[in-house]
Amino acid sequence: MFQEEYVRADAYGLISQLFSSPPDAAFLKLYSGAPDAGTAEDAPQFTLQEAEPVGYEAALKRLQAAATGRDATAVAAEFERMFRSGEASLSTPGALAPAGQIAALRSYLAQYGLAPRASSAAVEGYVASICDVMRWLIEHDRPMGVQAGFFNDFVQPGVTTLCDAIEATPGASFYASVADLARTFMESESVRFRAYE
Description:
mainly alpha, TorD-like, 64% helix, globular
């Protein structure tokens, strides 16, 4: 697998993880854009002239900025409010995909011998599963036409609907940056797959 494919697989894995459960303190620290505490403030700083990040790379930087100094308990409370309490209308099965599409996803998973993610929440059960399947398709070198078909049928509509709902939810904070990351990555994937439509 080429390096670019590893990056794609990891991006799907990250998006799945963030929508499956709230990140813990270790995750927030790992993804924080803050410098290491051990770095001396008066140490000389050397930087190379680098191009400003764009697309997914820029969205990842924005996620790092959102993770910096963020309290894991507050992020968990935001996750609970948005996806479990129903305030954002994201906890109901029809919030992300019609029942027919969920049934089609189960059929697709069965075709490849994959089990759906065990969860009672629509967000976990649908978005995490479709991102996990895309990661699996990439890691198992499935043809780009197969990846494009699954992406167009399940991933793009499901993730776009979720991102729209998050961005329309008052009080979305950390998860607004997660939605930005997911939407930006899906836009880059959509461009990639246009040749296979």
